[in-house]
């Protein structure tokens, strides 16, 4: 009930603002409060400094396919930093070509989300990183095998010791996750045109884009999609006013209900963060909508209960495209060489020939 | 017959040198002729300059999974520049989790090979690049679909026009291959300890490693594994003296015979280039030997007809590990965003649940 309360408050705020017809400065002031700019750097996580040793190790781990049982799939396979931090397929392909249940969320700016996964079942990126490594339809590995893999390579041992100098046993599954999280804190995309606008550059957004931002606020989108990430902060029913079709909202996936076992959490999902949204089609947890305009239309109907005028949808889409930020420069890592002690790849079931 | 002749000549040369007991300078002179150092840069291919526009485009293409039908597999999946330019599995996993027939050769220094693939069926990297994109067990795409994919993205069109400014139609399958080749010319690994040694640094190799180099020459390894790439220059029967077991040399894969349909090419393969060999286990076209020491022993028996003393094998292995060069620094590319016109991913057969 609290969450629904927040949601309606959000819509209410939007409606109040709708009447205002704000100037560029007024719009900027509204927007800055609702959606602060993305910082260029995240220096701390949970109050702890993120060190360069952890980031370097995390970068290696993020790109290392040997975290998977098959030695074929890395974190980057589904959260490809070259294509918006996601894999841009409906739902991801994993171990033995199994198709996962939900669309891969972008890793870009994910550090700003209140929790991870579409249902928020991981409190933070540290916890998130442990999921896909073990999921049978994703990397299909086990913590013991991952640790054995990492301990088999002296260069990894050294990198863990550098990243976690005070740990009596540096190479652990927990530290693997911490290092991946540390790397992921660097995957932020500052200085989008939207950010330039709220930081004072009137010319960063054209008139249509500013109108889109205003409509985004006034029509109630910002009731769920707020914060510097334009979402990712709380959970809301998908189809609160009108349920979308089963293709978009498959009946079997009850969202956050599977985490909380609370009836009011049926078909509840974390509001998708919208930074770089133009890079991350297809949309929604089911990944069945490829067109951003269609996605905005679905949201208007399902969440706001309105048939939004096409001109407003176009303006919102134009505005959303200003949320594409500067993507981080990433050196592709040189990975430690496997040794005799490294567990061999296990492909699982191969297709019959 | 010519090829066999060359091979026996190679062995003969090795035997002649065996008696010499060369000093560091003599060893260097021998080695420099047989295995020149890897250059730090390749500026031309087939007499044409390689441009930065082509390299930048090629880097995007090399890492772009949308060259595959599924949008999951990129060139880098099987030729991972972070793990020795190969995938370090017996034989590669491709489209719909099909397992390919041969071990993925390293892309590092591949520009120095006389031809590409284990059977040399592609004359150069340009031709090679077209193979896996179309192979049903690899990327399972078609030239038309690849071109449609690339043409659907304005940023790719611009990158092709920059790379091929004189082409009336820049975005072609041929130019895709040329750009990938251009990028691959940058994947060279100069300045290995071996290279430092032949360039004058006596201390770059220790005594055991120098002895290994001498044994490598004297025992006849260099009869096939010559040139700056320590191989990759010509074709030789695998098991010329004694056929290895069917696990290592599967009966069904007749090697270069499938290219030339010439009886003497049965079980003939391109001599594997040995640069960075410590990074590219498992070994041989079948990828069934994980241990470099075992691989050297197999070669001695199969190709030289000798049970090489363990001390000599150890020395050769020590020497081979000095062939690991400096790997190129690679910025992971930011890839163009798909558009409505981009062909959608096609996963092919999914496993039954």
TrEMBL record, chains A, B:
Cytochrome c domain sequence ranges: 53-161, 207-324
Processing after translation: Binds 2 heme groups per subunit.
Endpoints of the signal sequence: 1-24
Gene3D superfamilies noted in UniProt: Cytochrome c-like domain
Keywords: Electron transport, Heme, Iron, Metal-binding, Oxidoreductase, Periplasm, Peroxidase, Signal, Transport
Keyword Disulfide bond: no
Domain of life assignment: Bacteria
Subcellular location: Periplasm
CC cofactor: heme
Keyword match Hydrolase: no
Molecular functions (GO terms): cytochrome-c peroxidase activity; electron transfer activity; heme binding; metal ion binding
Protein residues bound to heme c 1: 75, 78-79, 95
One GO location term (cellular component): periplasmic space
Record InterPro entries: Cyt_c-like_dom (IPR009056), Cyt_c-like_dom_sf (IPR036909), Cytochrome_c_Peroxidase/MauG (IPR051395), Di-haem_cyt_c_peroxidsae (IPR004852), MauG/Cytc_peroxidase (IPR026259)
Binding site for heme c 2: 221, 224-225, 299
Note on how the cofactor is bound: Binds 2 heme groups.
Coiled-coil residue spans: none
Protein name: Cytochrome c peroxidase
Upper taxonomic lineage: Bacteria, Pseudomonadati, Pseudomonadota, Alphaproteobacteria, Hyphomicrobiales
